[in-house]
Design a protein that fits this description.
By secondary structure, this protein is of the alpha/beta class. The protein has 2 domains: 138 residues, Aspartate Aminotransferase, domain 1; 263 residues, Type I PLP-dependent aspartate aminotransferase-like (Major domain) (Aspartate Aminotransferase, domain 2, 3-Layer(aba) Sandwich), CATH 3.40.640.10.
Length: 415
């Protein structure tokens, strides 16, 4: 067989936390284990009926069966722009400041191709979502990991970034509410990030899939819109519907910022692969150029479903948030009963748990042995970055009784 030579950029992509756990789950299933999969943040809740109906009606429309180019996506882009304006009080131009995506992961993985020359640095969160690093590797860039520590509220400290790295950096990627730590960030942090990136001529990228999966009343933790209005030294911000800030509220002129949203979490449309980028027109155009070389767009019927989701009744979003809050409370209570005391997250569909001894520095071995012996699959913190070691991530993608069964199995494994 011919010895095919592959690009060096593939080397860092050989290991992936989700692929590794998928193999471990397959081994457990082959051994006859009943697997309770808490390793992947794929919502088990259905898309709303009016969303499915919009897609279903599209199927019989022959005009939806062909390629869909950018100009054909205007209806979706207008819906996205209106959704943002209503939620955050930010005026958005659907012609130049919105780009449809096959999920936000497409955007975060492809944008480095538009921003980085070989050897340039991207500033990424550690721990962070794996596709953020994957896109930088594909662009032959370098990664500077910004450590996220519990004592700092899992927020990076910009002053710790070395000057030589900054001189060679072209982009910073943030994501709050954060996967995997579930941390949230106030508007003041985003204002600091915008000022820092403006000072150092960096594109500021914000991955924002968990905008709606936030729990409790705004007064519970001081990050609601009313608090932003009182605490911000900048212009007053409209009293909008979101409990957590958009990066564009800290950069209303969209001078350096781009934000990625997916309908996978808020609208339970993960399998439909639909999201969008919104923000700085130059960044949007650059990403559009990369996208044009890779694909067209999704089936028009999926965009019709997404329009229905963004413009239709929002009761399903509130119901999903209530469901994940109920699951969070049940899972946290069960962990506390077995003596594993973890903090209660205020957002996302995850529990970020510090591992007990003797597993405190071997999250991969813990997860491998746990699924092998009990069938409970979770994600090792090390798979999200060096600073994730010592933690595991639980995804709350099952009903409370099954989550409690998982904790019972975990207790047997630990004791």
């Amino acid at each position: 067989m011919t010895n095919i030579q592959f690009a060096k950029r593939l080397q860092p992509l050989k290991s992936n936390v989700f692929a590794d756990m998928d193999r471990a789950k397959a081994v457990a299933l082959a051994a006859g284990r009943e697997v309770i999969d808490l390793s992947l943040g794929s919502s088990d809740l259905p898309a709303e009926a009016h969303v499915i109906e919009a897609i279903a009606q599209s199927l019989s429309d022959r005009s939806t069966h062909g390629y869909l180019l950018f100009n054909g996506t205007l209806g979706f882009r207008e819906a996205a722009a209106n959704w943002y304006e209503q939620k955050f009080g930010i005026k958005v131009d659907p012609q130049t400041e919105v780009l449809p995506l096959i999920g936000s992961q497409e955007g975060t993985a492809h944008l480095p191709l538009a921003l980085l020359n070989p050897g340039d640095f991207a500033l990424l969160l550690d721990p962070g979502y794996p596709s953020h690093a994957g896109g930088v590797y594909l662009a032959s860039g370098q990664i500077y990991p910004m450590p996220l520590l519990a004592e700092n509220g899992f927020l990076p400290v910009f002053a710790d970034i070395p000057a030589p790295v900054l001189a060679q950096s072209r982009m910073m990627v943030l994501s709050y509410p954060h996967n995997p730590t579930s941390a949230i960030a106030p508007l003041s942090f985003f204002q600091e990030a915008v000022a820092f990136c403006q000072q150092h001529n960096l594109a500021l990228v914000h991955d924002f899939p968990y905008v709606d999966l936030v729990f409790g009343e705004t007064g519970d933790w001081g990050l609601g819109t009313r608090d932003w209005v009182m605490n911000s030294s900048q212009s007053p911000i409209p009293n909008t519907q979101s409990l957590v800030p958009s990066i564009l509220q800290a950069d209303p002129d969209k001078s350096i910022s781009i934000e990625f949203f997916t309908l996978s979490k808020s609208y339970n449309m993960g399998g439909f692969r639909i999201g969008y980028a919104i923000g700085n027109a130059q960044l949007i155009n650059a990403l559009r150029q990369v996208k044009a070389a890779v694909d067209f767009n999704q089936y028009r019927g999926i965009l019709n479903g997404a329009i229905a989701a963004l413009t239709g009744p929002q009761a399903g979003v509130k119901s999903a948030v209530a469901t994940f809050q109920e699951r969070r409370d049940a899972f946290i209570s069960a962990l506390h009963r077995i003596g594993w005391n973890v903090p209660t997250p205020k957002a996302t569909m995850y529990i970020w748990a510090k591992l007990p001894s003797p597993w405190s520095q071997n999250s991969i071995e813990f997860c491998t042995q746990l699924v092998k012996q009990t069938g409970v699959a979770v994600s090792p913190g090390a798979g999200f970055g060096k600073c994730g070691e010592g933690y595991v991530r639980f995804a709350l993608v099952h009903e409370p009784p099954l989550l409690e069964t998982a904790v019972e199995r975990i207790a047997q494994f630990l004791h």
